[in-house]
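Researcher: For the record, we're logging two predictions in this thread. I'll number them. Prediction 1 follows.
Model: Prediction 1, sequence and structure:
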Amino acid sequence: MQKDMKNQNSMERRTFLKAGAAVAAGAAVAGTLSGCHGGPITNKADGSEVVEPKAKTRQWGFVIDVPKLNELGIFEEIKEACHAYHNVPDTGNPKTAVKWIWEEEYHKTFPEIASEYLNEEIEELGFPVLCNHCADAPCVRGCPTEATFKREDGIVSMDYHRCIGCRFCMAACPFGARSLNFSDPREFLDEVNPEFPTRSKGVVEKCMMCSELIDKGETPICAAMSQGTIIFGDLNDPSSDVRKALNENFTIRRRVELGTGPSVYYIVDGGEA
């Protein structure tokens, strides 16, 4: 009798495993069919199949008209507004400075394409620099705790609570767009904006493209204050303002030879945007 029960249990186990394998195989085939065509498969009224195209996600980005921005002379106001809203501390020490957006000269912004005989007007321009929210962000790959991650809309964001201050992201970023809080940043804040979280000692931070405002349908602070010289929009949308600016102007990006795919473009010829 025990032998019969053992055989029955064995048969039931084999039946269960076969059923599980069949379900898994069916799911794999369905997933392959969906993945091959780029979208889910649905049936028409006549029973034939139609593949729904996969929706293209957004890729938020900026086009910065550098000559016009310099002509207006409003960059410092933009930087101060950005830093004040996001509780960026002013340590008063260049060695421990925390920067979300700052200004550099052409040779430091584009060292790989700088020329000894650069046009004097371009050489004297101040270039706003910030996180480039790269399409293939090396900082995301370098973060061991996933404190740095890429959103579906292309923004490279951070979870401050997961940051352990290892600085692997800082080493990976080719644009110097990340800063470490060497001491408690709250000690250097005259006022605290309660709408945005403060950080703590040992945490890395950077520009997050005002993702908290974008999620509410608002424009990033730098673009909103720029009087049209910092253009914000969806790079994947041909009708967006950023795409129109790219179609109408010659633009350059930082260190494109590295293949990171920066989402920040610069107009340097003074053309109409």
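Researcher: Logged. Prediction 2.
Model: Prediction 2, sequence and structure:
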Amino acid sequence: MNITIHRGLNQIGGCITEISTATSRIFIDMGQNLPGNGEKTTPEQDKAMVETLFQNDRKKYEAVIYTHVHEDHIGLFDYVPKGIPQYLGEGAKEIIVEKYRLLCEADKLSGNDPKTNIRKHAKLKAFHTWPRSSKPEPFKIGDISITPFYNCHSIYDSYMFLIEADGKRIWHTGDYRQHGWTGGKLLQLLKWKATDIDVLITEGTMLSRNDECITEKEVAFKLENVMKAFKYVFVLASATDIERLASINLAAKNAHKTLFVCAGLANNAMRIFKRRESKQPGDLFDFNPRYYKEERHLETMKKRGFVMVSGVSQFDRVEVLHRQLPEEEVLLIYSTWDGYYKEQAQVEQNPGYKMFREAFHNVVDIHTSGHASRQTIKDVIETVNPKQAIIGIHKDEGQTLESLGLKGEIKNKIVDIEKINL
């Protein structure tokens, strides 16, 4: 069995990992480069790169398997050649199909050419899936066996993979964390399932950052406190991050404020999350937001106060409401990565985050990373303790797993090379 890291050794995002045998191969993720990470490319260059990947070293059995639906992991799916099956978790597929359905609707309303999003929507609907399960079943691409294990990340329905072929076992972590609502059993899972592993491939996003990764429970507590201090609260957050939405939902309930959304994706995503994840009324994922309609809700909202979740695409709607409220009683909670408004490459790519933030007088940042802390990465490596090699991907250029202070034989297994033959 061979491992090729096409992208990810020296950049965050844009991940593409190939695992192959004599007859079969899979690609884990087909990600778009993030602003400021990796080479800046045009769509034409991305398409040519993906086509080249599939033209070289063809196998009888091939597929692309996705860990989750962040753009830096799935963004190049449209360039995968026709006839190559693509796989995704059931819940993740439902969310991204809904996202592109809404994009198609937006194209029609705005008069934009809908062809690209219609094509992408149709292609996503054809994805193969696996069900979310506490006892996942493996599926096969030729002689390669893949077993998906649900993990905690800042987007819904993310997975780690156990890959088996040629008598070898690889564990690919995808993006993960331990400090989210559902992340507490990470090491227990690895002790049970990531056994007798030959190669561990782990993300290393936080290697260059010494940020404190507070828990989502602590995020919810901080959110609640500031929600109680202001009558009108806007929260800038991702519509697909089920755990952050759960923190916001819990905080709004405890602050005795009605939760509103003003975007179709956030509204529909919460409905999907509730149907798939809520076990009983009042639990963590029991979402019941109100979809904001000015003519129906405005006067009641002015009187009683509110919490409103929004994305940057809804800035115009938010600003219209914002202008009708007394500034001293309005708060924006910025609840996503601060690099979107601090880092120049990010601001140039999408100025909406900075613009959104600067439109408010009262602003507070309440956030925690969707990625594993340095300590968690170290714990994962020491728990799995693979027999042959440890590969760090999804990490800044110049960063290495050796900075974690691993000792002895484990440290000696760290490799930063593009190809490994097992």
